[in-house]
Amino acid sequence: MLRTVSRAGTTLVLALVAFGCASTQGGAPERAPTQIRVSNYNPLTVTVYAVSSGQNYRLGQINTGRTEVFGVPRGVNEFDLRILVDPIGSRLSWMTDPLVYTPGDVIEVQIESNLNLTSVTFRRGD
Hints:
Blueprint: H1 2-24, E1 35-40, E2 46-52, E3 55-62, E4 67-71, E5 82-87, E6 94-95, E7 106-111, E8 119-123
């Protein structure tokens, strides 16, 4: 009987040690997810997409005068992200050049009444 308890205790201690070591491995802390912060100063409601590797990922619609924050969808390549702005009721649209980001960055898009004046800025994550 004493052997059974001793083996069970040893097994429990080894499991706790292994779990503790596994949870502290990895080194650097995980960064916050990348955010896409979009402000719409266009008179039209816009639909915003993340475009990567030829695939469009709908982020959402933003009414005039509003700011919305979106996460980068799964499947988006961090070396090939474009933001597509499509005003509802207009034949015009606007798209960024390819953007390269790292986890934790904040990508800020400011949509202007003249789409050609729309801008993108980055705030690097910590």
